[in-house]
Sequence to fold (66 residues):
Amino acid sequence: ARIKELEREIRELRQANEILKKASAYFALAELVLWNSWLLRQKGAAARHRNLRGSGGGGVVRSLVL
Fold:
């Protein structure tokens, strides 16, 4: 009886371990997606900032004046 109980416990622990592995992979992927999204937004903001400055430092103002 004790052996059957231990075998059942081992089976349950293995199932729980598989669930935890899958959950860990899911959340790691979700975090990676969020991180990449954040990086892309930061790169976009940096590019917009560079475009506003332009090569002469007054691209927006220059286009409005001309």
Summary: The chain has one domain: 2-65.
